[in-house]
Amino acid sequence: MIKTDKLTRRFGEITAVNDLNLEVEKGEVFGFLGPNGAGKTTTIRMLTALIAPTSGTAQVAQLELGRDNRDIRRRVGVLTETPGLYKRLSAIDNLLFFARLYGVPSPEKQAERYLRLFELWDRRDHLAGSFSKGMRQKLAIARALLHEPQILFLDEPTAGLDPEAAKVVRDLIETLRTDERTIFLCTHNLDEADRLCDRVALFKTRLVAVGEPQELKERLYGRRTVIHLVDPAPGIEQALDLPFIKRIERMDDALVISLTDPEKENPALVKRLVEMGAKIQFVNELRVSLEDLYLDLMEGNHAAN
Amino acid sequence: MPRIRVILLKEWRESLRNKMILFGAIFLPLVMVGAAEVMVYQGRGIDIPGAQIALFNTALMYFLILPAIIPLAIAAYSIIGEKEQGSLEPLLATPISDLELFLAKALASVIPALVLTWLSFGLFLGISFPLVGGIPPHVLTAPWIAAIFGLSPLLSLFSVGITLLVSSRATDARAAYQVSSFGILPAIVPLIIYSSQKTLVNLGLVALEGLVLIVASIIVLYFAIKVFRREQILTRWK
Q1: Is residue A80 part of a domain?
Q2: pLDDT band at B140 (very low <50, low <70, confident <90, very high)
Q3: A185 pLDDT above the threshold of 60
Q4: Phi and psi for A277 in degrees, rounded to 5?
Q5: Are residues A137 and A284 both part of a single domain?
Q6: DSSP code of residue B137
Q7: Which of residues 62-121 of B touch A (CB under 8 A)?
Q8: What is the pLDDT of residue B92?
Q9: Residues A38 and A154 in one domain
Q10: ipTM score of the complex?
Q11: Under DSSP, is residue A277 helix (H, G, I), strand (E, B) or coil?
Q12: A227 and A92 in one domain?
């Protein structure tokens, strides 16, 4: 659905996006993660044919960026960083305006469909300016979907929302993933990306890493088992000499052991520790959050690939 | 064309809900009609030909100021309003072309300005009947008609071009309005000077002013269209 080849955008001396190579599949929820100023919005603007790349090429919805810009804009929907609604117009007038600009065949029916879907139908005649932040965001997402785009670009959809409103928006995204639409989700909310995205790209002017969240975590950290012991003997970590152990660290009374296949290796590990006289309190898997991964990669503590 | 119409209707719907624009669009023409009536009423009883002609020229000037002033507020609020609401980017993400967007924004200001100017002129003629007993002398002549219907669109276009240029760099509608008001002064100054003359406005003068306005409008609109490109709007506009 989206394919970029060395996509680059410079603003004078500043390079906002550098040599971006990316492939996003149909129906995928793709997270594009990076800090403020990383070039995420510039990337979205290029992929939605709003600004031209300085160099490189891209195909969006099987169309060539630069050559088919108008058609690309017909096939993608964008939720910009701010909802960008017309505050002096009612909710339905906002949607009708955009439906007509996109040439939607039955603007009234389509506007009604999305207002009902997003539970805004009862407020359709209220001015958008009177809406809460969460309602505005829902209306803006409805606007981005009116023309049934193949690809939906969401730029920080939950930024500035209270937890309740953010949950509403996240639930909405969950419902959208069921209808084979490709979603390009730009965010720095890592928990949100972890929960919603099939794959994520970590980006800071250049692509730092790309893959499924779990796969990225395993690629970088492996899988780790944490065994909490009661008064562990000094030097127990050195004495534990099983061949499948990749790495072992001592953290206070716990051992953090990197394994390849914990499901198979944990029983042998526990058995060996018991034989060595260790008193086991708990055994759990050490779960790495996307945040840990993100911070490590962005701070350059790990090589990405 | 349908997209231009869609934007035009949206612009006008928003303008009708903006008290500043609405007040200016109703109040200013009424003031100008009133002032023009005072001029012809005063001129009616004066038997000094030069003085009477100067008063009539001033009356005409009022109707030529309207198409230059009315678009200022509409165009300024149209652009700054989009900036304030952050609605430019979603709008630019639609399949509309840069030129369609520019034309829609320009026409959204020019059309009401011309309609209000011509309605005001009609109102002026209508009120003249009970006030001075008929259409005032020197009014329904070729120079007046040429000025009202020929110069007005040019004054509006020039004014819109200036306002769109100023608004692209401004973040406050009132500031954009004020700066644009100074920007359109060169187009109005000849009218102000002429209003004090003691010779009746003639076709030659109307044609000369028209020619100057055509050249000035082409230059201003050329730069305004250049500024109205997606890339410029998203990366250069304040």
Answers
A1: yes
A2: confident
A3: yes
A4: 90, 10
A5: no
A6: T
A7: 85-97
A8: 93
A9: yes
A10: 0.86
A11: coil
A12: no
Tokens 């206070």 identify what position? A252
| 3-state secondary structure (DSSP) of residue A186 | strand
Q: Is the Cβ pair B90, A98 closer than 8 Å?
A: yes
Looking at the domain assignment, is residue A296 inside a domain?
A: no
CB atoms within 10 A of CB B107: 18
**For residues A46, A49, A51 and A56, what is the CA-based torsion angle, rounded to 10 degrees?**
50
- Residues A122-135 have a mean pLDDT of 92
Say whether both A117 and A251 belong to one domain.
Answer: no
Domain closes at, from A211, A227, A244? A211
What CATH number is associated with residue A275? 3.30.70.980
Mutate to test the interface with A, among B89, B97, B234 (most CBs of A within 10 A): B89
Helix, strand, coil percent values for chain A (each to nearest 5): 40, 30, 30
> Is A97 near chain B, with CB under 8 Å?
yes
Taking the mean position of all CA atoms in its chain, how far away is CA B169? 21
8 Å CB contact of A45 and B18: no
Q: Across-strand partners of A225? A: A257, A285
Distance CA B80, CA B223 (A): 18
pTM for this structure?
0.83
Query: Which amino acid is residue A157, in one-letter code?
Result: P
Owning domain of residue A284 = 219-288
Same domain, A229 and A192: no
Q: Identify which has the larger pLDDT, A230 or B188.
A: A230
* Beta-carbon contacts of residue B18 (< 8 Å; ≥ 6 apart): A88, B77, B81
Taking CA atoms, what residue in B is nearest to A100?
B6
Torsion from C-alpha of B138, B41, B118, B187, nearest 10 degrees: 80
Three-state DSSP class for residue B136: coil
Q: 3-class DSSP state for residue A111?
A: helix
SS3 call for A280: strand
Where does a domain end: A178, A211, A244? A211
Q: What domain count does chain A have? A: 2
- Burial string for A186-217 (b: 16+ CB within 10 Å, else e) reads bbbbbebbbebbebbbbbbbebbbbbebeebb
Instruction: Say if residue A125 is exposed, middle or buried (CB neighbours under 10 Å; 0-12, 13-18, 19+).
Output: exposed
Handedness of CA B143, B145, B148, B152 (dihedral sign): negative
Question: How far, in Å, CA of B57 to CA of B50, rounded?
Answer: 11
pLDDT of B214:
93
Contact A59, A65 (CB under 8 A): yes
Distance from CA of residue B61 to its chain's centroid? 12
Q: Are residues A57 and A142 in the same domain?
A: yes
Are A141 and A40 within one domain? yes
Q: Kindly state whether residue A305 falls inside one of the protein's structural domains.
A: no
Q: Assess whether A104 and A223 both reside in one domain.
A: no
Work out the end-to-end distance of chain B between its first and last CA atoms, rounded to an integer number of angstroms. 29
Query: Under DSSP, is residue A77 helix (H, G, I), strand (E, B) or coil?
Result: strand
B188 vs chain A: nearest CA distance in angstroms? 33
DSSP tag of A232 = P
Q: What is the pLDDT of residues B55-91, one digit of tens each?
A: 777 888 888 889 999 999 899 888 888 888 889 999 9
Q: Is residue A298 part of a domain?
A: no
